[in-house]
Write a structure and sequence with these properties.
single chain; 3 helices; about 140 residues; five-stranded mixed β-sheet; alpha+beta; STM4215-like
Length: about 140
């Protein structure tokens, strides 16, 4: 197994989302690799939890990264959150920028969960994606 590609994968996903014009039109620069501190923006995107398992084979080291991208908003209803989530899904369906280490073999949407968060004032969508990477 190789966890060595994890930071490069996260950087590429962050770059992809931060440079997506449609996403920036919806949330501005409010795309974070950790939840914001202080008073959070009304709507933002956060890279979240990641689980990694070995997928090495005879050709070399590899891993499956199950990762979460979250949309959090104070807006009433789920329309804003779902609009942002759709743009994220479309963006991550496109090829990622080149990784500084390793390569992305595939990146696929797995599932999503929409829910009210906290005391019901926030809407949250956690989208799960699976990336297969190879450390070359």
């Amino acid at each position: 197994m190789s966890y060595a590609v994890s930071a490069a994968l996260q950087a590429a996903i962050f770059q992809q989302l931060s440079s997506d014009a449609a996403l920036v039109a919806l949330v501005g620069a409010n795309i974070f690799d950790a939840p914001p501190t202080g008073t959070p923006p009304a709507t933002y995107v956060s890279l979240g939890e990641e689980r990694v398992s070995d997928r090495s084979d005879m050709t070399g080291a590899g891993a499956l990264h199950d990762l979460t991208v979250s949309v959090i908003t104070e807006e009433d209803g789920f329309q804003v959150a779902k609009s942002v989530a759709a743009v994220i899904s479309d963006s991550l369906a496109q090829p990622l920028p080149a990784l500084t280490r390793g390569v992305v073999v595939s990146l696929n949407f797995l599932k999503a969960r929409a829910r009210r968060d906290g005391n019901g004032t926030l809407r949250r969508i956690d989208m799960k994606f699976r990336a297969r990477v190879q450390d070359i």
